[in-house]
Amino acid sequence: MAATRDKIGYAEMRRILEANPMKHLEIEAVVDWYKTGEERAKADLLRAQIFEAVNELGMRRPTSMAAQVWEKIFSVVVRESGF
User: Smallest Cα–Cα separation from 51: which of 12, 1, 11?
Assistant: First the structure.
């Protein structure tokens, strides 16, 4: 997603998505959040990019029970990482 963002920007990505309605759009790629050092720094950057994309693309928060559980876990990770 970052490569596409760098090439065409979020505004164009959003325009394309809105012109081709999709019922669901998901972004998932939370890895290495439990590690330290350089691996954790890379994971923190990826997480920040995911949050940025969600906001810029106008995505909504998940409503399923599993998503709510992950959101609670993720909120702890975010709080600990200083976001």
Answer: 1
Share of the chain above pLDDT 90, in %: 19
- CA torsion 77-32-54-21 (nearest 10°) is -140
**C-alpha of 48 from chain center:** 7
Per-residue three-class SS string for the chain: CHHHHHHHHHHHHHHHHHHCCCCCCCCCCCCCCCCCHHHHHHHHHHHHHHHHHHHHCCCCCCCCHHHHHHHHHHHHHHHHHCC
Amino acid at residue number 34: Y
pLDDT exceeds 90 at position 79: no
Query: Which amino acid does the sequence have at 71?
Result: E
Domains in the chain: boundaries: 2-81
